[in-house]
Amino acid sequence: MAVLAASRSNVHSPIPTPSDDLADSEIEADDQAPANGGDFFGTYEEDEIQWPGDMEWYANSSENSDSSDSEDDVVPGLDDAEWEPLVTGRDLEDQLGTAEEDSTEMNSHNRDLRQQIEQRVLQEDAITIVQYPDARAGHPIPQADICNANAAYATVINDTANPYAPFASRVDWEIARWAKLRGPTSTAFSDLLGISEVHEKLGLSYKNSRELNKIIDKQLPGRPKFRREQIVVAGEAFDVFYRDVIECVKALYGDPDFADFLIFAPERHYADEEQTVRLFHDMHTGKWWWDTQKKLDQRKPGATIIPIIISSDKTQVTMFRNKTAYPVYLTIGNIPKEIRRKPSRRAHILLAYLPTTRLEHITNQASRRRTIANLYHACMGRVLAPLEEAGLDGIVMKSGNGILRRSHPLFACFVGDYPEQVLVTGVKTTECPKCDIPPAELGSNAAPFEMRNLDAVLNALAAIDNGDLAFVHACREAGIKPIIHPFWEPLPYTNIFQAVTPDVLHQLYQGLIKHLLGWLAEAFGAAEIDGRCRRLPPNHHIRLFMKGITSLSQISGTEHSQICRFLLGIIIDIRLPNRLAPSRLIRAVRGLLDFLYLAQYPCHSSETLTLLTEALDLFHNNKQIFVDLGIRNNFNLPKLHAGRHYMSMIQTFGTTDNYNTEYTERLHIDLAKDAYRATNHKDEFVQMTQWLERKEKIARHERHVMWRLHGNPIRHQPRPANLSFDRVQTLTKHPSMKAVPIQKLITEYGATYFPTTRRRLEDLAAAIHLPFRTLPVYHIIKWRSDGAQGHGDPCVTVDSAHVKPRRVTTSQKGADVPARFDTVLINDGTGRSAGIEGYRVGQIRVIFSIPQSAVTMMFLPQSSLPNISPM
Fold first, then answer.
1. Which of 201, 219, 237 is the last residue of a domain?
2. Which residue, 425, 607, 673, 789, is the most exposed by fewest CB within 10 angstroms?
3. pLDDT per position as a tens digit, 239-282
4. What is the pLDDT of residue 34?
5. Mind listing the pLDDT tens digit for each residue in 458-484?
6. Residue-level pLDDT at 124
7. Is residue 35 predicted with pLDDT exceeding 50?
8. What is the 3-state secondary structure (H, E, C) of 124-178?
9. Lowest mean pLDDT: which of 263-277, 570-584, 647-661, 758-772?
10. Is residue 50 over pLDDT 50?
C-alpha cells in the first residue's frame, strides 16, 4: 500500500492522477506553500502574489478600465502603463487584438470545443469500422496444406531434436549470438577462443571467427543476399549494392513476428455511429489504400495491396575523413505503425547502398547536379524495376502464418528530407515538391496552388525520344529537371508528387523550430533567453540547458523537442524592443507549437485536422511581428509551406508517425555506422553487406530458438488505434528510505498536514488505528504504458515524478543538492482524459507505504491492539 501526499504549487506538469488500484491515496491540494521553505521560487503567502485568472486588479485600473485586451495580452503583476502604452496605428491594433482573440468567453468556448473534439477520438467504444465493400480484397487463396514460417525454418535447419541447431548446445549458440550481436571484433574473438582449453571446456563447435562465419553463411537461412552491379552514367561506372526488392518484401511480409498483426484490406474508421467524424491512424485507414484497391479491383478483384515505403538519405559514417554511405530502406504499410517505428522489431530492411560519389571531375556545377540526379534515378530504377510487373499482375506471397494471398507490391510513400524530396521528384530547389505554388508565394497561407500534374510530367519525360533540345524544353514546361527515366516513371499506380510525405523531424523540429529559436533570440536578446533557461526548476521530462540554448551548435531533433516543452513559458512575459506589444509574437509562437504537437497525434479525426489548420493559420495571422521587428523580410520557406499539405497527407496515408524520418535516421546507426566500423575500411561495402547479412541471420535464428523453446508468446489483441492508453503506476522493489520518522516527513519533506490527516482518519474510523512511528518512503514513482495497441510490446515508462528532500552528496565533495518535489495534475473527480478541466495542480511531498506489520494490526479488534500514545 503506497500513499502520496501533496500540496499546491505554482509550477505544474501534466502527470496523471494516481489511480486507486495502486493504493489508497490522499493528495492534499492546499492553498498555500508549506511554511518550511516554500518551493523553488521562495517562500510567500497567498496574498503576496496575483494568481493567474485573478484579473480584478487589472479591471480596477483607471487607465485600462475600457481596454478590450484579452488575458493573452496581459501579464499580471507588471506595470501596464510601462509595459504596453496606449499607442495608435498598427501597434494599437496589435495591442487590442482581434475581437475573437480578445474575447475571454470566445477563448473559453474554443477551449471547450477542442476538448470535446479530442474526447471523441479517445472513446474506443464509439468507434465504427466500415469494411471495404468487396470481401475478396485481401482474401486468402485456397490451399491444401498450411506451413507457417517457423515450421518452414525448422525444415531448413533439418534438426527436430536440437532447438539450437545447427549449433551443438545452448552454450554453443549463446556464445555465437554474443559474438555477432554484442561481442568484440572478429580478431579479438578468435584470440579468446585461441586461449588454451577455452574451446574444449566450453564444448564449442567452432574454434575461431572464420569457422563460426562458415556455419552462419552456409547453414542459417536469412534475408536476401546483396548483389553488386555497375551502373554506367555519363561514361563512368559506379558500384551499387542492392537486394532483390521482391524478396525483401517477401521477407517482411512472411516474418512470423508480424503474422498476427498484418493488415490486408483498407478500412474506414469513424468516431461515431452516424459516420460523420472519420478517424485516420494506420495506413489502411487513409484514402490512398481504399482508392487504389478500387482501381485494382477494376482489373482483377481479390488483390492484396502491399504499400511499399521507401526512404533514402546520405549519412556520415566517420567523424573525420568525410566518409559517407547512402542507404535505402524499405518497409511495408501492412505492418502496423506501432511496430514499424521500433528499430528493435526489425520492420525495416536495408534495400541498397547507393554510390556516394561527388563527381568532382565535372567542373560545371549544373552538369554535375544533373549527372548526380541521373545517377540516383538510374540506381533506384535498377533496384525497384521488379515492382513494375509485380504491381500490375500480382504475385503469390505467403505470410508468416503460412496463408497465401495474391499480393500487389505498390510504391506508395517516399520518406526523406527536403533535398531528397527535390532529388526524387526532379523539381528545382526552393520549390515545393508536391504542388505548383510559385517560390515567391511559399510564405503565404492563402495563395492558391494545385498538385503537380503527373500526366503532364510523364508526357514531358516521353519527349526524350524527340531529341535532347525538345526534351529539355518539355521538362521546363512541366516544371521538372530533365531527368532521364526517373525510377518512378514505369511504376504502376504511383504518383511521386503524392508519394512525398510530411517530415516532422526535418520540416518542423530541424526546420521551423530552428528558425523560430533564431527569431526569438533576435527579438528578446540571447542573454535574456539563456538567463531564463538557467532559472528553470528541475522537473520530470524537462531537460535543463544550464548554459542556455542560443549558443548551441548542431542541435539535434531530440534537443529541439526538449526545448519546445518550455519555450513558450520562458518568453511569455519578456518585453519587446520599441515598446511593441508581445501579443502577436506570443500568438505566433503558440500557433507554431500547437501545429507541431497536433501534427504528431497518433490518431486524427476530421475534426482534429481542422485544429491543425487553425494552428497554422494562427501563426500566419501573427507572423508580421517578425517583420515589424526587422527580423524577417519574408517567409518564403519551403518547410513552412509544407505545413499546408499535412492535412491532406494525413487523410491520404494516415498520421505522420507512419512515415517519420526519425525512424530511418535511427537506422543509420545500426545499418550504416556500426557496419562501417566493423570493416577494415578497404572495399568497405563488401564487408558491410556481409556483416549485416550475418547479423540478420543470428537475429532471425534467435527468434526461432525462442519459438522452439517457448512457442509464440505474442498473440494478436485487436484494439482500435486511438490516442488512449492505460497507465500503470510502479514503484521500486525496495523503498528509497526504509524508516523515516514522522517528524522528518514534516521538516524535510514538507508534509506539514500528515499528523492532522492521521488523527482525522483515526477519529473517522474508531476501529482503525495507525500503529507506526516511521514509514518507508519512495523517491520516485513511474507511470508505464501497458501497450494498448496489442502488438506484444513491453511496457514503457511514459512519465515519472521525483520526490527528494535536500541532501549532501559524497560523490561531489559534499555538494549540496537542493530538494525536488515534482508537481502533478490532480483529478477532482470530474476530469476527463482530454483537457485540463477538472484537474488541480498539486505538489507531491511524500510517497510512502504502510509497513506490513502495521497493516496486520490496523484491522484487529481494539482490545488486542497494543497501547500506542498518539503523536
1. 219
2. 673
3. 999 999 999 999 999 999 999 999 999 999 999 889 999 999 99
4. 36
5. 999 999 999 989 999 999 999 999 999
6. 62
7. no
8. HHHCEEEECCCCCCCCCCCCCCCCCHHHHHHHHHCCCCCCCCCCCCHHHHHHHHH
9. 758-772
10. no
Q: What pLDDT digit, counting tens, does each position of 3-16 carry?
A: 666 544 333 333 33
Q: Could you write out the DSSP letters of every residue in 278-344? A: EEE-SGGGSHHHHHHHHHHHHHSSS-EEEEEEEEE--EE--SSTT-EE-EEEEEETTS-HHHHT-GG
Please tell me the number of Cα atoms within 13 Å of 155 on its side-chain side. Answer: 6
- Per the CB < 8 A criterion, the answer to whether 752 and 769 are in contact is no
Residues 6+ apart with CB under 8 A from 294: none
CB 225 within 8 A of CB 336: no
131 located within any domain = no
The sign of the torsion formed by the CA atoms of 45, 50, 52, 57 equals positive
Neighbours of 225 (CB within 10 A): 12
Residue 720 CA, distance from chain mean position: 19
Question: Residue 737 is placed in which grid cell?
Answer: 528510505
pLDDT tens digit sequence for 310-334 = 999 999 998 877 899 999 999 999 9
- Of 24, 30, 21, 52, nearest to 844 by C-alpha is 30
CB atoms within 10 A of CB 683: 10
Strands (E), 774-857: 774-778, 780-785, 796-804, 807-808, 816-817, 820-821, 823-827, 839-849
Distance between CA 138 and CA 127 in Å, rounded? Answer: 22
pLDDT at 569: 92
Distance, in Å, from the CA atom of 102 to the CA atom of 622, rounded to the nearest integer, reads 14
627 belongs to a structural domain:
yes
Cell of 525: 536578446
| Percent with pLDDT over 90 in the chain | 56
Per-residue confidence band for 127, with pLDDT thresholds at 50, 70 and 90: confident
Q: How far is CA 37 from CA 33, 45, 575, 752, in A?
A: 8, 12, 31, 11
Identify whether 206 is part of a domain: yes
Domain that holds residue 190: 167-219
Q: What is the number of domains present in the chain?
A: 2
- Residue among 501, 429, 415, 486 nearest 454 (CA): 486
Reduce the DSSP state of residue 773 to 3 states and report it: coil
User: Bridge-partner residues for 332, per DSSP?
Assistant: 308
Task: Say if residue 382's pLDDT is above 70.
Answer: yes
Which helix (H) or strand (E) segment holds residue 3: the answer is strand 2-7
Burial label, 103 (beta-carbon count in 10 A; 0-12, 13-18, 19+) = middle
Domain boundary among 653, 670, 697: 653
Give me the amino acid identity at 101. E
The 3-state secondary structure of 427-446 reads CCCCCCCCECCCHHHCCCCC
Q: What is the rounded distance in angstroms from the CA atom of residue 579 to the CA atom of residue 570?
A: 19
User: What is the DSSP pairing of strand 315-316 with strand 807-808?
Assistant: unpaired
CA dist., res. 826 & res. 844, Å (int): 10
Q: Check residue 711 and give its pLDDT.
A: 77
DSSP 606-650: TTHHHHHHHHHHHHHHHTHHHHHTTS-S----HHHHGGGGHHHHH
- Asked whether the beta carbons of 772 and 854 are under 8 A apart, the reply is yes
Contacts of 550 (CB under 8 A, 6+ apart): 517, 521, 526, 529, 530
Q: Comparing C-alpha atoms, which of 282, 332, 329 is closest to residue 307?
A: 332
Q: pLDDT tens digits for 412-445?
A: 999 999 999 999 999 999 999 999 999 999 999 9
Reduced to 3 states (helix: H, G, I; strand: E, B; else coil), residue 39 is strand
Question: How far, in Å, CA of 617 to CA of 595, rounded?
Answer: 9
434 touches 498 (CB < 8 A)? yes
What predicted TM-score, i.e. pTM, was given to this entire model? 0.82
- Residue whose grid cell is 495608435: 88
Distance of CA 304 to the CA centre of its chain: 29
